[in-house]
Amino acid sequence: MKIVFSDKKSGKTAQVDVPKEYETSLIGKRIGDDIEGSVVKLDGFKLKITGMSDSNGAPSRVEIDGTRKVWPLLHSGPGIKHAKKGHRARRMIRGNTLSADTVQINTIITEYGTLPLEEVFKAKPKENE
Fold first, then answer.
1. 31, 63, 73, 111: which has the fewest C-beta neighbours closer than 10 Å?
2. Maximal CA-CA distance, the chain
3. Averaged confidence pLDDT in the chain
4. Domains of the chain: total
């Protein structure tokens, strides 16, 4: 499971793997809930869940309760790309609750800790160089 966290002030984003021992504490959280940053070694930070996706790439939507997969008729929002006016499509999406099938959790930073943001969003060296 990975957590992608972003900072609204700087516009930067980073991705961190969640250790196995913390994955079970995240299961059952919903979109809009706050989680502690200590889960991904960001002590003092608070992260707000804004979205997630499962192993098949299906996004989650706030309107669908639980962890189930559904195929609703959509016209905009997560799961629909470049919809034309009046066009609707049936797409597979997930509910708004984290489950064991969740692979990626999208979050934003709501409270900042003592760690400077430069260290949080430090650039990784490229593998080809």
1. 73
2. 48
3. 85
4. 1
82 falls within a domain: yes
Residue 129 placed within a domain: no
Task: Give the model's confidence band at 57: pLDDT under 50 very low, under 70 low, under 90 confident, else very high.
Answer: confident
Amino acid 128: pLDDT: 55
- Band (pLDDT 50/70/90 cuts) for residue 73 is confident
- Domain range for 33: 2-114
